[in-house]
Specification:
3 helices, 5-stranded antiparallel beta sheet, 137 residues
Length: 137
């Protein structure tokens, strides 16, 4: 008789004692999440990328020196046009740069002074920019 109960006990599945868990897909997600909020989130990320690119371009983080040539100064004169002064060796050249071509405007007789760059990290430059924009208001 004991063998009968032991064999019956081993054949009984313990699933009858466990509660069945119902899996609800998406239960952890926000119920109010819809297409408009997803699009707004995507647009915010894109705006953040464009602002970061603008800040990097504004503060000119890129190194301007290459193989004996250096950009001394530049002045934008249009949306895609600018006038730059470059130094090649001991000579300084005034160049007009557009989207289609680069034109030599003049070889400078009296070279411009080369300002020593101030090496600030990006956070200090960004802080200075914010202080500057706050004082203008």
């Amino acid at each position: 008789m004991i063998k009968f109960f032991l064999s019956a006990f081993t054949l009984i599945s313990f699933n009858c004692f466990a509660q069945e868990a119902v899996v609800e897909v998406g239960k952890h997600a926000n119920a109010n999440l819809d297409a408009v909020s997803m699009i707004m989130s995507l647009l915010m990320v894109l705006v953040l990328i464009f602002i970061s690119a603008w800040v990097l371009k504004k503060f000119n983080v890129v190194n301007k020196t290459s193989a004996g040539m250096k950009v001394i100064t530049s002045l934008p004169v249009g949306s895609k046009e600018k006038v730059i002064v470059i130094q090649v060796g001991e000579e300084q050249l005034l160049l007009g740069v557009s989207a289609q071509q680069v034109t030599l405007l003049k070889i400078l007789d009296k070279p411009l002074e080369v300002a020593t760059p101030i090496n600030l990290d990006l956070s200090q430059k960004f802080g200075q920019f914010l202080n500057k924009s706050n004082t203008q208001k």
